[in-house]
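Quick log. Single chain, no ligands specified.
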Amino acid sequence: MAWALALLLGLQPVTTDIYLPALPALTRDLGASMSTAQLTMSALILAFGLGQLVWGPIADRIGRRPVLLIGLSLYTLASIGGMLAAQIETLVAWRALQGAALAAAVVCARAMLRDLYEPQHGARVMSLGLSGLGVIAIAGPMLGGAVAATWGWRAALGIVVLMGTLTLLFVAWRLPETLQAKNPRATAPGPLLRTWWHIARHPTFLAWTLLVSFTYGGLFTILAGSSFIYIDVLGLSPAVYGVAMGSASTSYLLGTFVCRRWVSRLGMARTVSRGAVFSLAGGVLTAALAVAGVASVWAVLLPQWLFAFGHGVHQPCGQAGAVGPFPQAAGAASALAGFVLAAIAFGVGLWLGQALDGRVLPYALGLGFWSLLTAGIAWTLVQRHGEARAT
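-> predicted structure:
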């Protein structure tokens, strides 16, 4: 299961991180404005969120495995289309399809976790899977930077095609069905809307979903804005930028290791309370240095390591906690949580397209904002409502 989680959830950083070092060159090559280039990220993440609302109920009705096979086939096709795109508008369209297909992999991964494990055990398994994801996240930007610097941005997107193909083959060859009791009414509009309404009002779902969405809001600020900050503002080459992002992913990986130890000793709520200290320190330090006029690689990278460590603590707990109360509707709960996360990231992408102005400050203030919200939720709602009870 940990291998499956690493591959399926790992497609998300593959889709974004490998692409990041190539983004400035892609923007110049296709003659796109910065706001249009940001749409290649924003359209993907919006389709990713909406796609989860579709795939989640379908996965509850027909099973996880069929949805994965269909979704991963579409993902690989869309990746090939993006690699061959000749215009920025065409690339945006392929990236949107890629995001919708990626949603199948992520929503099924989280639902499969709930099929097999109770929430606290699931958080430990999730942290193990996300450790594998962390390895992918470390290698992704470094590989993407080196490939983009040597062969161009299309070659970097070719790596995404390869990863999609390998994941599809793994699922077809090795991954069994985990859903024991299919729900034939899972996609019926009336029951589905009632299920979503029940899930959305559950305080445990709200606490964990807001936590994981706010910390991802900070991460998406890094993903969508950092290439322009490091390369265009601070002057790094794409290859060196890839190394910088890989180092931050190493910090994230360490966070998943620590999460696994803390969850066993402290439980999920106290674990994220500790993780929030690192999230807040990273975001506030980034903003404070930018306000003070310190514009250097280390002033951006060192706080990013702190935030990434906190993110590595929050993600396993948040993803397991959000679906924990709903063993009979894990697909729907996973989909709704993923939609909230994606909607926030979409808003971040639109804002960055307008706010980035050749300075570090807008990026830094955005990261600081999301770190404040993450810590606030970790220290309040999660402490009150984080213990899941099945409904």
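The radius of gyration is 19 Å.
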